[in-house]
Amino acid sequence: MELSHLSEEMLQACAEGEQPDEPSAEHLKTCAHCRQQLEVSRMLLRSLQAGPDIHLPVDFSWKVVANIEERTESRKAWREWLMYGALGLCCILITLYYTGSNFTFEMFSSWMADVWRAKSSGEWSARDLNTLFGNGYLYLAYVAFLLWIYDFLDQRFVQKGHRHA
Amino acid sequence: MDERVVVEQVLKGDVSAYKLIVDGYQNLVGHMVFRMVSNRSDREDLCQEVFVKAYENLRTFKFQCKLSTWLSKIAYNTCLNFLQKKKVPLYGEIQEHSLENDEKDLDGQFSESYWSSFSAVDLEAMKKESGSIVQNAIEALPPDYKAIVTLYHVDELSYEEIGEVLSIPAGTVKSHLFRARRLLKIKLLENYTAEELWS
Ligand SMILES: [Zn+2]
User: Contact B48/A67, CB-based, under 8 Å?
Assistant: First the structure.
């Protein structure tokens, strides 16, 4: 009798509702030990199925959404700063290119003064623009470069989230 | 809800649509986190973390598996990372070597006379009381085993799906599940008499 006790596999299967084979069923009828083993397996199964108690606040999903929105906002702000930074750097590079290696602070301040005069007089003539950017071709190159930077940043960061949708 | 529609809405930038996903799966994620992490104060934060991670990686989800499987995988990995960071031993107090004594331990814990004195009515009352003892024993299982018994018994994932969550073959899941249940039985019968278990 001792040797023919039900295997643990069989006990687990029976606990899950599988029908024992003929000899096992016969054995269960006469063996109290196996019946108690089966009952322990069943009890275990019920406890496992009950799962852990979950204590999450009722507004948990709102909290998640708020958390995500907060992160998205801060990332947007960061992106904007990155773009301004890139544009600023771009202006400096263009200025350096325009003035060549002879760049001095006096050149920069007189340039700024020209900008200020044009701004406060409210008249942006072609001559003013010429003053600012040296000549028309450089101005066009400047605009094209800014557009390219803007497009690059937009593609790289802003639209990235939607491309895979 | 049609998951595909909701997921597409979220990907188009509708964050509030994501609330539907959180509502639908917070129990699934909660089961995993509350089972694997014992520290109460960290559990809610971890559930949040799982859903934020899922949101941020949603565009990589192409319905190659069920959303529940995908979320479970994120929950499992998040818990595992957390446990590793907290230096919680990934193998609990139950060790595999106790399996060697398996048959011996499972034998003869209850007397036959005790068993034969059971009635069906008694069992109903006993079931409730034994619940917390068993929950404590589950608590002491290794994290992988806890994940597997939760995914299988509570969330009713298939062996294949659980295999995907834990990145192991379905056959391994099946044998781990068997061992986990056997370990629990050994542990319970080692530490408690029949009277304690059933009363
Ligand atoms: Zn037997």
Answer: yes
- Give the domain range for residue B127: 93-198
Selected for mutation to probe chain B from A7, A11, A54, A158 (highest B CB count within 10 Å) is A54
Q: pLDDT tens, B24-38?
A: 999 999 999 999 998
On whether both B175 and B103 belong to a single domain, the answer is yes
Q: Which of B47, B66, B85 is the last residue of a domain?
A: B85
User: What DSSP designation does B160 have?
Assistant: H
Which chain A residues have a beta carbon less than 8 Å from that of B11?
A: 161-162, 164-165
Give how many domains chain B has, as a whole number. 2
Per-residue pLDDT band at B114 (split at 50, 70, 90): very low
At B76-109, the pLDDT tens digits run 999 999 999 987 766 544 444 444 444 333 433 3
The overall pTM is greater than 0.80: no
Separation between Cα atoms, residue B148 and residue B177, nearest integer Å: 6
In this structure, the number of other CB atoms found within 10 A of the CB of residue A120 comes to 8
The total number of residues written for chain B in this structure: 199
* ipTM, interface predicted TM-score of the complex: 0.76
Mark whether B105 and B171 lie in a shared domain. Answer: yes
CA of A26 from ligand 1 middle (Å) equals: 10
Mutate: best of A29, A56, A75, partner B, most B CBs <10 A: A56
Same structural domain, B71 and B99: no
Instruction: Give the SS3 label for residue B88.
Output: coil
Closest to B66 (Cα-Cα) out of B160, B168, B177? B160
Write down the pLDDT at residue A146: 79
CATH number where B17 lies? 1.10.1740.10
